[in-house]
Structure formats: C-alpha cells, structure tokens
Amino acid sequence: MTVYTVTSEIFTENKNAYIIKNGNAISNFIFKYPSYMIKPECFNNIIIHDNDDDIDIDRQQRGKLFIEHHISTELQYVGLQVWRGALLLADYILSNPDLFKDKIVLELGAGVGLTSIIASFLAEKVICTDIDIKGILKLIRCNFMRNGVYVKSKVYIKELDFLNLQWPTFYEKRMNEATVILAADVIYDENVTEGFVDTLTKLLNSKTQKVVYIALEKRYVFTTVNMDVSAPMYEEFLGCIKKKQLNWHIEYIKIDFPQYFKYNRVKHMILMKIEMYIHVHK
After folding, report:
1. Radius of gyration of the chain from its Cα atoms, rounded to whole angstroms
2. The CATH number of the domain where 105 resides is what?
3. Is 135 a domain residue?
4. 87 is in which domain, residue-wise?
5. Cellular component per GO (predicted)?
6. Whole-model pTM?
7. How far is residue 143's CA from residue 223's CA, in Å, rounded to a whole number?
8. For 203-246, what is each residue's pLDDT tens digit?
9. Kindly report the CA angle at 211 between 207 and 212, in degrees rounded to 5?
10. How many domains are there within the chain?
11. pLDDT at position 38, please?
C-alpha cells in the first residue's frame, strides 16, 4: 500500500532551520517583540552591540523560538509539524494581550506547542493538550524547556484525544477552569473534525463561560462530485456544527492585525471566535 506524506509550507518558507540526528528539524521562529515585551527586565536581555559598538536596536526588539518538529509526516501525524494556523494564532495573542493576560488557557491539538508557548507569556495557566502519538507530548515538553525564557505561567501538558470524551474527574475539572480555548489547524480529517466538535461541545457546556479561537487555512481542492473547487474540511466543520444544531455564536475575526512572526499570511487563512449563546430570562 502506498503511504502518502505531507509537508507543511512553513518548512519551505522558514530559512532558519537545521536538521538534527533523529530526522527532525529544529526551526528558529523569529518574531518582533510587541511594545509591552520590550522592557529591560524581560527575558534577562543582554545589551547587544554592532560592529561599531553601537547598540543594535533591531536585535534588541526580536525574539526567537526554537521549535523541534518533524519535516514531513503521514496525514494522521500532521500535528508533529508546524502549520500557518499556529503562527496566525500566536500573532493574534501577541496583538491582543488583554484577552489572554492572567487567563487560564486550554489549547486543543497543540501539536509541537508553539502557540501554547506564546500564550504562556501572558496567561496565568496554560493547559497544553494533544493525543499522545509518536511521542508528541514529549516533544511539547522539550520545546517548552527550549523556550523557558518566554514561559511566565504555570504549564500542564496532558493527553486529550478528540475521539475519547471519557475524562477522569480531576482532569475534566481542570480543563473546565479554562476561560480561553485555542485550536490551530486541527481540522483536516472527517473523524477528527467530528471529534473536535464533540470535544468543544462538552467544554462549552460547562459552568465556566468560555471563548474559543480557532485558526485554520482553507485548503481548496477540485472535486468531481460538484465539478468545482471547494474547501472540504472547512465545510465539513461548519456542516458538523449545523448537523448537531449547536447553539454557538461564530464570529470571523479580520486577520489584518499585526504580524509578528515571519510566514506567508495567505488570504485563505481564517480566525474564528466561538461562544455559546447566552439566554437571558426576563
């Protein structure tokens, strides 16, 4: 049987990567500091001088994440790569610190942990989750350790499988404390998409009011069924919400907020904000 692999565009766009012996890559994701991060006490900054012994202002205003990830994978293991949605969501977090500062943040399908690392600079607590396949949770822990200078919150790295909603009581209690839920590029397979919707449904039905931010890229294909171009997984996600008659308010956030990371922010990228409708009884 032929095994098909996929490779994220980020690996070809990012020129700051090197290969390590186990076949993975460690990429340097350079980003500009937002103004609130440019402080003498942040990250124990060392003053950097150029060749003329002048302070290098540009380098003082840049950060760098070291992220280990796979170069290419089979479709079911794409979480081991870095995708544009993670960087879009990271940009949104950096652009809107008040939405995330001192919050309890839960990331679903965190992949290699890039977005959670950025959230951990602002949040009170970050619960970073994914299904534990191919050592992905170990990879997340290593990436948090590599970027410890940015981690200002308590961090919990736990397994969460969209296809298994039987959570231990103590674990469910911890996740339900979250007021902000993040997910980037988790919509790529029909079964996983339905499981993701079921997971969100369970979390949004808790007593704690939550807001969900979902970043994804519409991936268009030509289908012979409709003889037209469509984005099947995006449409599958919306169709699943409609089929289950979920009482969700969906808002599409304009993606014209500042871009701090270097990547191609293509026009097909989407950032959705989801909340439960609240019924007010008069």
Report:
1. 19
2. 3.40.50.150
3. yes
4. 75-276
5. nucleus
6. 0.89
7. 39
8. 999 989 999 999 999 875 645 455 455 567 899 999 999 999 99
9. 120
10. 1
11. 79
**How far is 66 from 51, CA to CA, in rounded Å?**
26
> Which pLDDT value is given to residue 222?
44
Report the C-alpha gap between 131 and 1 in whole angstroms. 25
pLDDT in tens, 105-144: 999 999 999 999 999 999 999 999 999 999 999 999 999 9
**How many residues are present in the chain?**
282
